[in-house]
Amino acid sequence: MEDPESAGAVPPPGLSSLLPPREFLRSRKGQLLLAESVLSFIIFICYIASLAASFMMAPLLEFLLALFLFFAYASRLNEKFKGVHWPLADFLRCVTAAIIYFAISIAAVSKYSDGASKAAGVFGFAATIVFAIDFYITFNDLVTFLKQGSSDSPEGRKTEDEDSDSDSD
Fold first, then answer.
1. Is residue 162 part of a domain?
2. Is residue 51 a part of any domain in this protein?
3. Which of 23, 39, 78, 168 could cysteine-pair with 127, CB 3.0–4.6 Å?
4. pTM value?
5. CB atoms near residue 24 (< 10 Å)
6. Alpha-carbon gap, residue 16 to 20, rounded angstroms
7. Residue 159: is its pLDDT beyond 50?
8. Tens digits of per-residue pLDDT, 113-124?
């Protein structure tokens, strides 16, 4: 019996098929989503170990949302499901996450004195910055997305047709 590698056959896909493509990991969006996932998970662990355990739900939800969007963008679900306004959903997620992380980080740093709460607060401020960068970039993508949508509408075509008619006179 021959070894499958020596026969030139491609080995069956295993866990490596679950990994995102390298191109996505090198992209700005991939790196931001990965940073958001990692920071949210670290903050979640810090809040579990701290006296501020009541704040643990926000990082858990943000971790799960960031992880979902990471794999959705990596597997190009945004191109397959056109009915979902991906840039708008991503923008709203980033804005709310930045606001929530900023608020709970201030509360964790000022109200609680244990080290885990302080660490969660510091990581929360870092996550606020990462989410703010992401929502700034996503906002620019959202504006482009909305401009494309308005040019596809009948009103957008009508004004373009009127402009071309007035130019030909």
1. no
2. yes
3. 39
4. 0.74
5. 19
6. 9
7. no
8. 899 999 999 999
Q: How would you label 127-160 residue by residue, b for 16+ Cβ within 10 Å and e otherwise?
A: bbebbbbbbebbeeebeebeeeeeeeeeeeeeee
Q: Is 162 helix (H, G, I), strand (E, B) or coil?
A: helix
Q: What average pLDDT does this structure show over 9-33?
A: 73
Half-sphere exposure of 5 (CA within 13 A, CB side): 0
How many domains are there within the chain? 1
Range of the domain at 37: 22-147
The DSSP output letter for 46 is H
**What angle separates helix 28-48 from helix 57-74, to the nearest 10 degrees?**
160
Highest mean pLDDT among 4-18, 75-89, 128-142, 153-167: 128-142
Helix and strand element counts for the chain (H, E): 7, 0
Q: Is residue 166 a part of any domain in this protein?
A: no
pLDDT more than 70, % of the chain: 76
Give domain status of residue 75, yes or no.
yes
The CA distance from 69 to 53, in Å, is 26
Cα separation of 153 and 21, whole Å? Answer: 35
Residue 148 contacts residue 114 (beta carbons within 8 Å): no
pLDDT in tens, 39-87: 999 999 999 999 888 899 999 999 999 999 888 888 888 788 888 788 8
